[in-house]
Automatic annotation (TrEMBL):
One of its GO terms (cellular component) is plasma membrane. Belongs to the G-protein coupled receptor 1 family. The keyword Hydrolase does not apply. It is a multi-pass membrane protein. Gene3D superfamilies: Rhodopsin 7-helix transmembrane proteins (1.20.1070.10). The chain crosses the membrane at residues 30-58, 70-87, 99-127, 148-169, 195-221, 257-280, 292-315. Residues 50-308 form the G-protein coupled receptors family 1 profile domain. Its main location: membrane. One of its GO terms (molecular function) is trace-amine receptor activity. It comes from Electrophorus electricus. It comes from the Eukaryota. It is found in: Cell membrane. This is Trace amine-associated receptor 1. InterPro entries: GPCR_Rhodpsn, GPCR_Rhodpsn_7TM, TAAR, TAAR_fam.
Length: 338
C-alpha cells in the first residue's frame, strides 16, 4: 500500500518528499518510530557513557599511563565524538527521513565522519604495530615505545585524518554545488567521485586493514613459537632465542586488542565494499540500506568498552571506583588496579 506524499519543507519549492502513511499504517509506524528512537538512543547512550568511562579511567589512574592505553584513550575519544556529535543528528535523519539541520552542517558532519573513521582505523593500525613490537621484540619495545613516541604517533594519526577531512569537505562541497539543481532541500547526501572514493578507502581503510591483519598473523606465529619454546625448556625467564618471555599482561592486552580489531573489521568491511561499489558503478540503492549500513558502523563505537569490560579486570575495577566516587579521594589516582 502506498502512502500519501508530503514534503520535508512544505513552503519550499525544491523540498524533498516525505512519506505520510495512511491512518491504519500510521499506528504501527508510530510504535515502530518510537522503538527506533529507543533502540538508537540506547546505542548512543552506551557509546557516550562507555567511552567516557574509558577516558576517565585512563586519564585518572597513573597505573594506566602506558603506551597501549594511550592508543586506547585516543580510540575512546573518537568513539565519544561519534556518539555525542555524529549520532544524534543522524538518528533524527534516519527516522524522520528528512535532514533539518542545513546544508553547511551536513557537509561538516560528513567530513567529520570521514575524519573520525580514518582516526579509528589508523589508531588500530598503530596499535597492531605496537603490539607486534611488544610481543615479537620486547627488548626493542622497552627502548623505543616511550610515552612521547606514542603521543607523536597519535598526533600523526589525528593530523593526517584532519587533513583528509578538510580535503573531503572541499571535494564534497564542489560536487554538491555542481549537482545543486538535482538535489532537493531536506537531503543530506554524500557526493564523492570514484577516484576520490578509491583514494580515501585505500589509504584510510584497506592499507591499514592489511597492516593490522599482517601484524596479528605475525604476532600469532611468534606467540605460538614462544609458547612451544617455553613448554619444551620449562623456562619462565628466557626463550630459546635469548629474549625475555612475553608477560601474561602483554598477552592479555594483545588478545583483547585483537578482539577489538576483529570486531571493527567485521563491522566495517561490508559497508566499505558497498560504498566503493556505489561510487564506481553509480548504483543508488534504497536510502534505507545506506542508513542501516551507517548504523552498523556506528554501533561499533559502543562495542569497544564492552570488550574492555569483558577482558580487562583493571577496567572493571576502574569503573567501580568511578561509579562509587572513589576517584574524588586523595591519592585515588595511585590506586592499584592490577
Amino acid at each position: 500500500m502506498r502512502g500519501n506524499i508530503s514534503l520535508c519543507y512544505e513552503h519550499h519549492l525544491y523540498s524533498c518528499q516525505k512519506i505520510i502513511y495512511p491512518l491504519v499504517m500510521r499506528v504501527g509506524m508510530y510504535f515502530l518510530i518510537v522503538g527506533m528512537y529507543f533502540l538508537i538512543g540506547i546505542i548512543i547512550f552506551a557509546t557516550i557513557v562507555g567511552n567516557l568511562l574509558v577516558i576517565i579511567a585512563v586519564i585518572h589512574f597513573k597505573q594506566l599511563h602506558t603506551p597501549t592505553n594511550y592508543f586506547t584513550l585516543s580510540l575512546a575519544v573518537v568513539d565519544l565524538l561519534l556518539g555525542g556529535v555524529v549520532m544524534p543528528p543522524k538518528m533524527i535523519h534516519t527516522i524522520e527521513t528528512c535532514w533539518y539541520f542545513g546544508t553547511v552542517f551536513c557537509k561538516i558532519l560528513t567530513s567529520l565522519i570521514v575524519m573520525l573513521c580514518s582516526v579509528s582505523v589508523l589508531n588500530l593500525a598503530f596499535i597492531s604495530v605496537e603490539r607486534y613490537i611488544a610481543v615479537c621484540n620486547p627488548l626493542l619495545y622497552h627502548r623505543t615505545m616511550k610515552p612521547h613516541v606514542t603521543l607523536i604517533m597519535i598526533a600523526v594519526c589525528w593530523s593526517y585524518s584532519a587533513a583528509l577531512g578538510i580535503i573531503f569537505l572541499k571535494q564534497n562541497t564542489l560536487r554538491v554545488e555542481h549537482n545543486s539543481e538535482v538535489l532537493c532541500k531536506g537531503a543530506c547526501v554524500l557526493e564523492i567521485g570514484p577516484m576520490a572514493a578509491l583514494i580515501v578507502s585505500l589509504f584510510s581503510l584497506y592499507i591499514p586493514s592489511v597492516i593490522i591483519v599482517c601484524m596479528y598473523v605475525k604476532i600469532y606465529i611468534v606467540a605460538q613459537r614462544h609458547s612451544r619454546s617455553i613448554h619444551n625448556t620449562l623456562s619462565h625467564l628466557k626463550t630459546s632465542r635469548g629474549q625475555p618471555t612475553v608477560s601474561k599482561a602483554e598477552r592479555k592486552a594483545t588478545k583483547t586488542l585483537a578482539v577489538v580489531m576483529g570486531v571493527f573489521l567485521s563491522f566495517w568491511t561490508p559497508p566499505s565494499i558497498y560504498t566503493t561499489y556505489v561510487a564506481f558503478y553509480g548504483y543508488n540503492g534504497p536510502p534505507q540500506v545506506m542508513q542501516a549500513i551507517s548504523w552498523t558502523v556506528f554501533s561499533n563505537s559502543a562495542c569497544n568498552p564492552i570488550v574492555y569490560a569483558f577482558f580487562y579486570c583493571w577496567f572493571r575495577k576502574a569503573i567501580k571506583a568511578i561509579l562509587l566516587g572513589k576517584v574524588f579521594r586523595t591519592n585515588s589516582s595511585r590506586m592499584k588496579l592490577f
